[in-house]
Specification:
transmembrane, 65% helix, mainly alpha, flat, 11 helices, K_chnl_dom, voltage-gated potassium channel activity, Helix Hairpins, Ion transport 2 domain protein, 3 domains
Length: 265
């Protein structure tokens, strides 16, 4: 083996190892992914608490760059673990994480967009990585659908709160802190409308309208997920119908005989 071949072989071994850790089913792989998820949750907690930590710039920047290093290392490892990096880059979730990384690397310039970092919570719960590790038993079930609906609602609340905070803090007396922004977002989202905080101007009315419309939509989606009849996901090999009643013997669309496995859920 020549000297030029050794690094390539070493690179292939590293990629194979990362692929086994990120996509494998061994106990070591599961433990590794659990550790990664714990780090992800800690990062999300920092994103949520960032407005409160902003007062102490030194502490904030230290934590910010540590989080950036962790997120950057995780993204690099995921890219190497993926079979085709070009295909990996086509995934929208990857670009969301890359944008979040940019806000961490350049906090002085992109801090006003830092509220978008909470989208990391949505990308985490909507990733197969999460359900393969923590929610394997509940993958492709109502639990997954409900968790995703709740996460979408919570993520929107924090994103909208961050937007109101960065856009109106210091420019309007009604928004004097992050809690005021959260309070306004929740009262608008639930269409309660106490009227004690009103965003000024046309721009403020547009923001209020968007929060109400999107909030109601997410609430409806969550309600539908909780109340609709339980279905199991099993594709019919004749017509392709994916959702069936748990005790279905025949496909409702084409009458094809089904053999839905019962795993005791």
């Amino acid at each position: 083996m020549t000297a030029s071949e050794r690094p390539a072989g070493g690179g292939l071994r590293i990629r194979a190892r990362l692929r086994a850790l990120y996509h494998g089913t061994s106990r070591t792989a599961v433990r590794f992914r659990l550790a990664v998820l714990v780090v992800d949750l800690a990062i999300i907690a920092f994103f949520i608490a960032a407005p409160l930590l902003r007062g102490d710039r030194l502490v904030f920047y230290v934590i910010d760059y540590v989080v950036a290093a962790l997120l950057g290392a995780d993204l690099l490892a995921r890219a190497l673990a993926y079979s085709d990096i070009k295909d990996w880059l086509k995934r929208p979730i990857v670009w969301v994480d890359l944008f979040i990384l940019a806000t961490l690397l350049f906090p002085a310039w992109l801090f006003n967009l830092g509220f978008l970092r909470v989208i990391r919570l949505w990308t985490l719960v909507n990733s197969e990585f999460f359900w393969r590790t923590v929610g394997r038993r509940y993958d492709d079930t109502r639990v997954e659908d409900t968790a995703k609906a709740v996460t979408a609602l919570v993520t929107f609340v924090f994103v909208a709160t961050g937007f109101v905070y960065t856009s109106f803090m210091g420019r309007y007396d009604g928004i004097s802190g992050w809690v005021d922004a959260l309070y306004f977002t929740v009262t608008s989202l639930t269409t309660t409308g106490y009227g004690d905080i009103l965003l000024p101007g046309v721009w403020g009315r547009i923001v209020s309208i968007v929060i109400m419309l999107v909030g109601v939509t997410l609430f409806v989606r969550l309600g539908q997920t909780l109340l609709r009849p339980h279905k199991v996901r099993y594709p019919c090999d004749q017509c392709g119908l994916f959702l069936h009643d748990p005790d279905a013997v025949h496909c409702k669309a084409c009458g094809n005989l089904l053999c839905i496995p019962d795993d005791g859920r």
